[in-house]
Structures are given as structure tokens and as C-alpha cells.
Amino acid sequence: MSQEMTRLFIVMGVSGCGKSSIGKALANEFSGIYLEGDDLHPEANIKLMSEGTPLTDTNRWPWLENVAKTMASETGVVFAGCSALKKTYRLFLKEKAGEPIFFIHLSGSKQVIAKRMSRRAGHFMPVELLNSQFEALEAPDPSEPSVTVDISKSPKAVLRNAVSLLGQSETSLAILSEPNAPEHT
User: Number of folded domains in the chain?
Assistant: First the structure.
């Protein structure tokens, strides 16, 4: 499959960066579906994070495989929220999906994200684990199919920026040329 035919997109970044809200909005924008990666965690992972224990690679591999296989099982354009913090995780996701994945990295400062995390209710990930997420984060490098979106602005501005960056990417040509995709002028 050529890079232009990518249909799987992961909205990635540390906890609290806006993966769910931006991912859902992008799926709506491009007539795709959105999968919430948090819903695909094994119960044991949720318990660990709820208790303030950072996940290890051993904890993450089954979850990442579940995210990849669930995405690949869907038809059409698929966006998923998944931290995908390390390059090895992103390579693993692509391998397990069996097709290309494009990564949309939502990037912001610890201060901005901690403030957002402190305002959200009912999420199992405590703000105390944010440091461990930043320590594990390896931003996508130029060899990876990705864009990086600054999240310091309003959600609407972040969405507009993400759509614009996707529009400038060769990888997104497939979703922008889909018959049900919106016109971008």
C-alpha cells in the first residue's frame, strides 16, 4: 500500500493533551470514525494508572496490539487516540495493523497539559503521572509519517491547525480526496 493510501490515523501525545476531543473532531471533519484508545486498555492497566503507577513496556504491548488490530478491523478512515509515546510503540502499531498509520502528535508544555488534566473529571489517569509520560515521550522524527500540532491555543484553533497540516501532507491526500470528505479551500 502506498503512503498516499493511508487511512489509519493516530492522534498521539501525553495524557491530557486533547487526543479524544481533537481525534473525535478530526474523525467528524474527514467523515471517519474515532476509536478511544483508553477504552481498549486491559483492566489491569487502568487499575495501575488509577493507583498512580506508570505503565511499563510489558503493560503497554498488549494494549498497543489491541489498538492496532481494532483500527485495522474497521473500514474507511479511522482516527484513534493513543499515547504512542515511543518510536518503538509507533513501529509496533504499524506492524500489528498491517498497514500504514499516520501520527498526529499533539504537543504542549507540561504546565498547559497539567492545567487541563486538573480540570477534567472522571478520568483514571492522575496528573501525578504526567512527568512519567513526558519522560517516556519520543516525539516523531522526520522519518515517521507525522505532523506535530501545537496545543497551546483553543481546541478550535488546534483543530484548524491539524486540518491544515494534514492538508499539506502527501499522506492525507487519500482522505482529502474521498468522495465524502469535506472541501477545503
Answer: 1
Please answer whether residues 129 and 15 qualify as being in contact, where contact means their C-beta atoms are separated by less than 8 angstroms: yes
Q: For position 90, what pLDDT does the model report?
A: 98
The answer as to whether 51 is a domain residue is yes
Torsion of CA 84, 127, 63, 103, to 10 degrees: -20
Residue with cell 495524557: 15
Question: pLDDT tens, 70-102?
Answer: 999 999 999 999 999 999 999 999 999 999 999
Residues in the chain, pLDDT under 50: 1-3, 123, 173, 179-185
Instruction: With respect to residue 17, please indicate whether it lies within any of the assigned structural domains.
Output: yes
